[in-house]
Fold these 4 entries.
Entry 1:
Amino acid sequence: MIGLNGAKSILNQSGDPLRQSIFANFVDRLEEADLKPSGKNLTPARLRIEILSGLTVALALVPEAVAFAFVAGVDPLVGLYAAFIVGLITALIGGRPGMISGATGALAVVMVALVANNGVEYLFATVVLMGLIQLFVGFMHWGKFMRLVPHPVMLGFVNGLAIVIFLAQMSQFQVPGTAGAGGGHGMASGDWLTGTPLYLMLALTALTMAIIWIWPKITALVPAPLAGIGIIAIIVLMFQLDTPVVGDLASIKGGFPPFHVPSVPFTLETFYIILPYSMILAAIGLIESLLTLNLVGEITNKRGGASQECIAQGVANTVTGFFGGMGGCAMIGQSMINVKSGGRTRIAGTAAALFLLAFILFASGLIERIPLAALVGVMFMVVIGTFAWNSFKIMTKVPRMDAFVIVLVTVVTVMTDLATAVVVGVIVSALAYAWSNAKRIYANTEITEDGAKVYKINGPLFFGSADGFVELFQFDDDPKSVIIDFEGSRVADQSALQAIENVAAKYEDVGKAIQLRHLTHDCHQLLSKAGHLIVDSDDDPDYEIAVDYSVRTGIIGGH
């Protein structure tokens, strides 16, 4: 068998730089995959923690996958197959060990209309195209743009998703068999439990939460969520308590996911039907996955690979579409369960996927007897641990705009979807930043010995500050010679070019001329490309002394 070093040697001999770059990065990631059969990361104690953490996650995945399948209007096995395949592939090659992926409510709510109007086969084709789009994003390294997401947006994302996870559990407090798909975020619209069944459900949920809170103080041998599920299941079975169980949602018994090419016409019409859904699903999936990657990285103090995560999600969804799955992305709730249970390597995620497959193939009867109250209790503890409670404390300490963005992203996440919320949050933050910088432009003036007036500009010159820049000048009162000094400023965009041209034109109209001084190299290039600078043949933008440039007007024109 060829080792990783051997694989690198073969790649170096291939001669294709692009191929070498892609696969060399992949091999490097495998070396850090925490799947090595020996070493400090795989002691017996670590292996036990990882496997038990994976089992806990798998148990929590079952009702989530079934519920989200109901939301999307497909068979429960479609959700379970997606949870298995997406979870397995992303656990093996994803950008962050410890993350859990599977069928999610954020994707399910988008799928409803597609399934209702075109059928489940179109959903499978959509998932395949969704995966291909995510692969393209990964190979183009567009995941790096997630660093543009401000921290207030991250806080809003975390808070909103915690609320969404909480709302998704409300369907478990409804009479089994009455749930529809009208509530959004996995919150089905059915008949609520009343009387004794409701009180018993609430009591068992509260008891599960209490066990999870107390258990770490007793022992660390078994993850607290798994202990909570096991103890509640034993209590329900011993006392024959009449409370909803997993089997009341649907049967999870099935076979191995069969290979299946989506039965849709391979025509442009089909492509036009599935393309909008694929793009929306790809965007939501990647945004949720990359934000979860950042969140898990903050908790574990380890960096993740954004581009690798995009590629892993793309591979997972492409494969899932050919095996009858509804697609998926990173699941912050299950990822938090895994991390809080001690899962830190790829083994936990892999074990969770394999346990889930084992439940489907061999242990459906046993899993279907687990009380829903125990799983709800686990998810409620996830909600408590996920919500950024310190955001209430910092609201009065951060700028008002940042506080507004936190609330805005939280509300939009709950009311619509994650992708929309993040885009809205980034846009509002960017506009707030632009407005803040637009107010920072000002000028100091001085008169030279030869009578020229120098405007020393401070602050960035861009679309937001262009009008303010023009208002700095006194066209009628200034002398014949005016110098604009950009030592403390930067010329950023076309709006800045237009502003400079407007100023030059206004001075021309009153028979005066301007010159530009102290242009940085990139500003010089921008103005030269636009044709604004009148440059001498011996000009060098990397100057050591002040060089004055005349301005050519009429290049861009007026409004």
Entry 2:
Amino acid sequence: MSRKFDVVNTIQGTDEWLAERQASFTASEAPAMMGASPHTSRTELLTLKKTGTAKEVSDFVQKNIYDKGHKVEALGREIIENRTGEELFPITGRKVVSGMVMMASSDGLTITDSWGSEHKQWNKTLPAKVEAGDIDPQYYWQMEHQLMVFGCEYILFVVSDGTEKNMVEYKYYPVPGRREELIAGWRQFAEDLITFIPKEVTAELVATPIERLPAILVEVEGEVKGTNLEVYRGAALTFIENINTNLETDQDFLDAKATVKFCKDAEAKLEAVKDQVLAQTASIEEVFRTIDDIGISLSATRRSLDKQVKTEETARKNKLVTDGLEIVNNHLATVTADLGGIDPHVTIPSLAASIKGKRSLGKMEDAIDTAIANWKKDVQIASLQISNNLALVNAKIDFKLLFTDLDSFIRGEPNYVTMLIDKRINDYEVQQEEKRKAEAAEKKRIAEEAERIAEEKVKAEAARIEREKIEEAERIAEADRIAAETIEGTDTPQLNAQEAPSPAQEPAAPASNTESVKAVVNRRAVDALVKHGFTFDRSKQIVTMIVKGEIPNVSIHYDR
């Protein structure tokens, strides 16, 4: 059977197994990486991965937690096998995810890798939560990691003490979006690991023991018989003078807090002595004055030191928060620039809230680092989604102008963005098609109108030509008529003086017969034109036009 992961065949606890774990990101480490482990901080996990040095485990924890857990796990696995009818095999697998080597161990995986089991020991609170399906992050991050490596359908989460009576179970299936968040968390962890510098390991700090002040002794028998108040005063003032008020390190803060408590206790003891003496006598002025002086000195010192402790603590917290916000803002600016000016819109964590209740500086730093890392992880997820959406938009570069409002939708789910892109393009293409149809219809209308106008022009021109022909015909007819009237009865035309016969040959026309002369000349002109090749009708038309002056620079002279 082909598996979706590589089997790690090393024995648990050996150097080889530890080396495999050191070179991989494991399921049991996932809760700490996500800042959800109550046992290991994210900073401690970074230190482990950087140095290879694991936290020391006490004999009690080894015996009562780990060793007992393995025994109970084996008993529980047998019960589950009997219930399901499937054999379960403890196994360790390895798989490369997003360029990172992931490893996971299963308390029992079916032979077909269809499902696996994760066993936890029975306790007072966990069984009820599991029965209600309320799985804490420290457990579900581990199982999400296992599902990612093994590729199985679900993990059977079992809580028992190795008996049927005390056993509850819950089928944990992959939660949408959670695996992506886990991968982003490991990616951010891997980035942080590159630049991580482990801090010097120091023992847990405890306050420096404070030298006790001497016990107050006051003997009273109606009056003060004896007292060591002056000795006590000297010791108290020396103690006050030696108090360290220059608070810089965690040790300084612990010592200062212990000193404040010590001063408060000393004040209470002084008041108790006063009450004791007052109960024995009513006139102990010197004793009371001494006690009051010492009490005032202690109180003033305590109040001043307490105020300084609180002021310095506030200053330290503020600096941690301010430095953390600077990291957040710088990272946000870089990511926004990489996304072309698009802010991923991931809520900035409340760093002040993350350190609430934390007493030591180290725990505050770890809380802030974890909060920032988880925020960076969320930014990474959002940025990846935005980048993928930008790729969808950029793939439609021809329609870039349709997406000038990128900021309003680019952070959406890919399916939504894909649907929006397709809809806008489809709407645009429909609009363009309608526009093309409208333009084509307008062009057609314009063409038809132009054709109509052209036809009308042709018709008008034809009508004009026809009208001119008719007019010309009418002119010709009229010329023919006039020519006929003027030429009728004449025989010899004269075109010009050169062609006309000499006076000796043709007798001059009578002066009183001018019209007859014109008719004779016109007839001769017609005959001359016929002689030159014109038709008789055309010749008459020409002569008529000459007579009417319609031919420029040509005229007929009538000489008697």
Entry 3:
Amino acid sequence: MRFPLLAGSVFSLGLLLVASACTTETIIQTVPPDNADDGSSGSSGRGSSGRKPSTSSGGEEEEEEGSSSGGSSSGGSSSGGSSGGPSQGLKSDVLAQGTVSLLGLAGDDAIYFEFSQDTLSLRAVPIAGGAPTKIADIGDNDDAVVSGGAVAIWTSISGRRGTLNVWTRATGLKTNVATDSVYGLFAASEDGTRIAFSQNATLNEEGTALQSTQVGIRDTDAASDAATLTGTTAVNLVTQSCPPYWGFVGKVFIAAHCTGTASAGSIATNAKVLRVPDGAPATVTRLDAASLTVAGTAVPFWIADATASKVLYITTSNSQARVAQVGGDTLDFDTNVAQVLLLSDGSAVIYRKATGELVKATTADKPVTTTLAEGVKAVVALSRDERKLTFRKLDRTAQGLSDLHVVDHTAATPSPVAIESTAAVFPTGFTATSSHALFLGDFSATGPALKAIPVGGGTATAIATGTIVGALSPAKGTGVVFLSNPKQLGTPPSAFNVFDLNFVDVSGGQTAKINESVPQGEYVFRGKRLVYSKLAAQGSGLYAVTLP
């Protein structure tokens, strides 16, 4: 499923950096994200940080724009040892040595770019350790993205179109899946067995810009489409205000995008919401209207329950939240909705109105509504157990600081609790157990404190201090990975940031260093397994550590 994330942003001396973790397990389901201007997790563009490392004359790794040459790489791997790791702290396994850039996870494989003296290749290595597999060489006009359990590689890209090739661990590399495929327009199921992709994209009459693209949906090992979005369901590539929003729920494909070829007007802003079930052939159904051919009505966005039987979308006419039920009637909720989420079991929607009311409504035929809070400026995060929400009631400061409140929407009488009533903290989400809310606070000249507070009531405690710039929760446990000691490599506009990664548990105990010189955005969780890359004069490579 594709959802915006509200966790993992980085605070640094008044500057919000784009350094979210490319997490594979969604914990936040809300739109628009409160930190939409802060960046989100990425899995494309030659590494999550978008960097192209090379070896400078001084021996220190730094970015060189437009060059893929780099330090030597052995291409080897090791399931043990901690070469390149800290002298003390948590022991990391070496997955690959050399100059690499982590792209993301496809199933239980880490996907990464490996830079050698004059070549760039895309590789996969099991996160548990093992021998890397070379997927493909990457040329100057090639690029790749990771989605779900699959990797899409475009070759010979020109004007954003190229030849699409797809890799999964089960199928290996399937070449020439589609031609005239738009780079980046790709989605895959979590198990990698079902894919959706751009195909047969067309240009305008002048041949100078993209106009429209079909969408193919098929099993990854199939030779032809199970369904094709074409004609009145093809994607409008002219509009700048209606980006396609695609994703899979299990093997069900859901898309929200504008159609036609207009650059302005309602056709360029009103999306159609479409659903394509598993199987072949598969019948395309319209969720926001009764017919495939009538004009779009929705914002390019959706959220589905875990079975894809309920799909929430927002209308463009009056910002109304609606839930389309497969085989049932569409449920109408409030208008003037600014943020919204759908619980994974489909039992309720929670939304913030532009006027500040935070409301929960059941998805029964006759919805029951409960006001959770008033005067809310933004929902910040939803706990993994989907019971608690944090939100703010004040505008954020220029440094990104805000107040912070929490409410349990499952309580018989929901009562918000103020964690911090002034704009003095930077929220970083919840622990995976949903037992604690996390935030940066007590800012000083030496940096903030990473603090945790029990959501059931209690006092916030500092669990780490220093030059902390962000925190991320693994998918399991009460541990927290936090980023510290930020450094900038290279020079603008080609500069990027590296950090130290550290671990601490909210239940107490000493901070353990994981590693240093980790590029911004190049860290991803799978359960308690953390995969990350390192870029330094010594010890560059791809690593994984099992967190306590």
Entry 4:
Amino acid sequence: MISNFEKSREIWRKILAIRGISGTWDILSLNLQLGLSSSSEVNFERYLQFLDRDEKSKIQRLLTNRRKALIYGKKPTSTLKQRLQELELSYRKSLAEIPRSLDKAKGSLMALIDIGDFETDQEYDGLCLLREHVSSDIISRIVTRWKEELRFSLSEREKAFLPQSYIFWSSNLFMETIDAICRYHFMEVFNVGDFPETIAEIESMFAYALMGPYPNPIWTKEDPEWASVAYNLWLASRSPRLCGRIRHFIEIALTRVVNHQHKEGWWPLHMTRQVAGLHEQYLPSNHMTALSCVDLLRLSRNNRQLEHVEQGIQWLVKQQSPDGAWTDTQIYGQKIVQKPDLFTTLLAVDAIKESGLTGYDYTVSKADSWIMNQQGLDGTWRDEVFPFPFMTILVVEYFERRRPPLSKLESYLSIARDFILRSQELALEDSENSWRLAIVVAFQGIEAFLYACLSHHSVNIGIFEKRKPNRTIGMRRALDELEKHLQRKGTLSRGQLIEYRNSLGRLAYYRDEIVHKGAFVPKKEALELTEVSARFCELICQRIFGYSLL
């Protein structure tokens, strides 16, 4: 029986293929009329391959006839356009018959990947979400295209005497950081190291965005830009690697966010113009409260800051509408309107879950039901702010996030997560002792992570010496034991090494040399080994625990 995922994927591919044929024909038709292109320069096969055999033949004949008509100066009929419209309508009806589900949504995202047009940068996040379905060939094609686009961009900037920039794509106004994080996340997840200058420029972009323009205390105490800082913190939180690279700026930005909380627990919406008789007022905002809580939960390491979250959650819970949604404040002329908002609801319920606070099961259940009910007949979620398909990706990520709240993580996993992330930050510093410390901290993080894996009920291997029950078995033996377990289970073949085994051996060697001999560690090694440690933890945590650790 075909799954909802495959049903949705197949129908969506046909819909997208029809749109691709229609859009490509419009361009070709215009070029032929202007004498700019010959019909042989356009390949419709990349779209036609996704249609059924009979429909493919019919569309091919119609395309051929229309080409001939244009070439000989005749006016083509509207038969092709009508047929494409009829096909899309019939496919949409079939799509509507598939029940609402996350699989239906993921099928739509997978179809976008199959077609491969990548019309928005947010589609790269779809690749990250469905990474287990993505072939290396797809990644290779994207990287090859990016290289061509980068070379072209650099050349064009040089011709125009513009400053050199390795940001080789264009973004709409106010979309610069969201487009950048989607590409950065893609390079992080698929370990694409071909664009170091682009990576560095994105990191600088976010560091600047998190600082934002500060208000001049001589003239005003108002800080309307803090909302933009909070939003960019949320974007940055999507990438553990980026957060490690710009940690100092994140700490400053988090302090700025905390400073805007009202004593009643909410964060404000700042109005900069007179509306409904109010001028320069701060109004309680569900959206900004939920956004600020999520920022703090994902990024803060300060217990005093996290206490502010509990106040925010308690206020947020009281604002939930009877249907399960949270509203967002919207301004229409001189009217202030509260409208149910998908993104605000997603942030609010995510904050409640991530906080680990108890007693809110009913609140979460109502919100989850409301969110699922917003799924369109085509299987996607949409809103007015984010480019398609970003909202669909956010919803699927939310429902499939299996990791317990950070405050509820088992102690070894909590230690491993914090140590691995800290080790990556230390490796970035320009200090020999920081590089040494990065290796030691990463080693201890890996050791704690291995103990967590061996202690899991599906593995159940002792982590203490039998003769000395107060002494743990150590990182090397723990790695051996986990490797043997995965071989017995069949995850690894007999004699096959666990992933990153040699690199982890090098990490252990450097740790011993540092601790016992005060050895020097090159920055390059510190960066590489801390990155390997993070990748190992992510891979094995998914395999043993079923969720992402970092």
